[in-house]
Amino acid sequence: MKTTISQVNRFVGEEVTIGAWLANKRSSGKIAFLQLRDGTGFIQGVVVKAEVEEEIFKKAKSLTQETSLYVTGVVTEDERSPFGYELQVKDVEVIHEAVDYPITPKEHGTEFLMDHRHLWLRSRKQHAVMKVRNEIIRATYEFFNKEGFVKVDPPILTGSAPEGTTELFATKYFDEDAYLSQSGQLYMEAAAMALGKVFSFGPTFRAEKSKTRRHLIEFWMIEPEMAFVTFNENLEVQEQYVSYIVQSVLENCKLELERLGRDTSKLEQIKAPFPRISYDDAIKLLHEKGFDDITWGDDFGAPHETAIAESYDKPVFITHYPTSLKPFYMQPDADRDDVVLCADLIAPEGYGEIIGGSERIHDAELLKQRIEEHDLATDAYKWYLELREYGSVPHSGFGLGLERTVAWISGVEHVRETIPFPRLLNRLYP
């Protein structure tokens, strides 16, 4: 019976064949222990000299790291294994022998591992991170489908800057200027006016010359947008969504979180509702914590976000930022024109902002005024203004950065480990 490592629990006591790679091996005279992986998981294969033909035992002992093979054996339960099962090997068939595999079971420098990212992905830790990433994506679709959202795909090539920044990758679109998208939000607003509740999931690009552990040049965003939804209702959707994906990872990635050494007790606390603090009160809190140099109107950096998050054991919303700090499309507070109805969701444990969201301006005249104040080309936003001219309604949305969220939930330090092939300021290879 041919099967995969993830499915061996169905065949306890039976003989199966698994296509796998040799991750590592060790031997002690009359027994060879083969650490096998097949993409679905890892399992130990035990080859006992007295129980197989001599040629098979010799072959098992001579296998090199990352050699591909078919392994046939009997599945047994093993309480000592984190996986719970192992394979009593009866036969080994080499498919392709790997020679001088560059990533050996020793310490390698970051740049070396990044140069060999195409191979580094095979390691246990990277495998676990990618499985956590996949579970977050799966749970995302599940959550929004359950909540009645429609998946919409905004364009990657755009003719304008959604947030009015200059941190864009420009390209020629025949005889026009175009840019790689830094957000699908504006298009999602159009979709929400047609379909009510929508979400997108796709790549975004930002030409920000940053080298921090929280930044990538190419990253993936989940961007929901909702018609007839106000600011506070938007926050409720965000906390329900984040709670959902965290609990899904806890339930479905136990082995991966254990392999990553993640303290799951901290994740178990991540359930809605989340605490909220206004920008005004956040400034006061930072002053109490010794950040005397920050004043009202300044944006928060990583140390500030971390200091604020330390006061809570759940993600915390920082709300009502100054209008001057935020993009042109955010709805002003009805009681204060110097702040907008927005919130950043800051993850615990120093992982920083994972969500930015707001209620959007729904008045056409105010939006036109904001566009002019930001020196944006009115013609480029003509279609966006028309959304407010034909049946405008209050609406809200947010964007969650997938890689930062993966880093937080999996407990890895740098976002470069949370995407299969990271694009960084100094890296376009492999």
Entry keywords:
430 residues, alpha+beta, OB fold (Dihydrolipoamide Acetyltransferase, E2P), BirA Bifunctional Protein, domain 2, 8-stranded mixed β-sheet, 5-stranded mixed beta barrel, nucleotide-binding, aa-tRNA-synth_II/BPL/LPL, ATP binding, EC 6.1.1.22, aminoacyl-trna synthetase
Describe the structure.
By secondary structure, the protein is an alpha+beta fold. The protein folds into two domains: 95 residues, OB fold (Dihydrolipoamide Acetyltransferase, E2P) (Beta Barrel); 300 residues, BirA Bifunctional Protein, domain 2, CATH 3.30.930.10. Helix content is 30%, strand content 26%. It contains 13 helices and 17 strands. An eight-stranded mixed beta sheet has the order 7-11-12-17-16-15-14-13. α4 packs across α6 and α4 crosses α13.
Structural class: alpha+beta
Backbone CA Rg: 26 Å
The parts where pLDDT drops under 50 for at least 5 residues are none
Order of helices and strands: EEEEHEEHHHEEEEHEEHHHEHHEEEHHEH
| Beta-strand segment tally | 17
Total DSSP helices = 13
Protein name: Asparagine--tRNA ligase
Family: Belongs to the class-II aminoacyl-tRNA synthetase family.
Catalytic activity: tRNA(Asn) + L-asparagine + ATP = L-asparaginyl-tRNA(Asn) + AMP + diphosphate + H(+)
Domain Aminoacyl-transfer RNA synthetases class-II family profile: 130-430
Summarize the structure.
InterPro entries: Aa-tRNA-synt_II (IPR004364), aa-tRNA-synth_II (IPR006195), aa-tRNA-synth_II/BPL/LPL (IPR045864), Asn-tRNA-ligase (IPR004522), Asp/Asn-tRNA-synth_IIb (IPR002312), NA-bd_OB-fold (IPR012340), NA-bd_OB_tRNA (IPR004365). With 430 residues, the chain is an alpha+beta fold. 30% of the residues lie in helices and 26% in strands.
